[in-house]
Amino acid sequence: MTVVKRKNWDTYFMDIACMVSTRSRCNRRHVGAVLVQGKKLLGTAYNGAPMGVPDCSEAGCMISETVEMEVVDGNEKMVKKQRCIRTIHAEQNLLLFTDRIDREGSTVYVTDEPCWTCANMLANSGIVEIVYYRPYRKDMEKVRAMMASKGIVFRQLESYEPPAETMITVSE
Q: What is the maximal distance between C-alpha atoms in the chain?
């Protein structure tokens, strides 16, 4: 008798998030997110322009630049950050298309660590855990501090290997 090895739940749900990310048409980053309560999948979403609006692959990225003060090795430093503002993030779409009652006590699996705006929205959504694969260094420290203060489990799947057909090269 052959014993078939099953994926663990983290790998299973992150594989689904990676597959969902393949629907994105963003040139800079494909992100997928799934909402899970217990072991039940309740919703999926990916990043992209609003429905019926030309996306980045059709109309180009709409880049916004900001400058923020950050403390690096004890020194204040001005850091330039670029973001595409044409795209609704996967986490935002997930919150738009799922019900609050389903989010209460749930976990979000997302291919990329949430940005500051998405982290704020998720922190107020009723979820209790965020699991991600790729770090997003631009907002990392303040996002992690907020999640800790809210008591939301926030963890990276460091040894995770996404399905090869789901990954694209992303720019930072």
A: 63
Is there a domain that residue 72 lies in? no
The pLDDT of residue 108 is: 98
Q: Which amino acid is at 84?
A: C
Q: What percentage of the chain carries pLDDT values higher than 90?
A: 60
Strands 107-112 and 129-134: parallel
Q: Is 61 annotated as a binding residue?
A: no
Predicted model pTM: 0.86
Contact 132, 29 (CB under 8 A): no
Please check whether residue 123 lies inside any domain of the structure.
yes
Segment 151-160, tens digit of pLDDT: 999 999 999 9
**Is pLDDT at 5 greater than 90 in this prediction?**
no
Owning domain of residue 106: 9-47+87-166
3-state secondary structure (DSSP) of residue 4:
coil
CATH number of the domain enclosing 134: 3.40.140.10
Tell me if 61 sits within 8 A of 85, measured CB to CB: no
30 is in an annotated binding site: no
The catalytic residues are 91
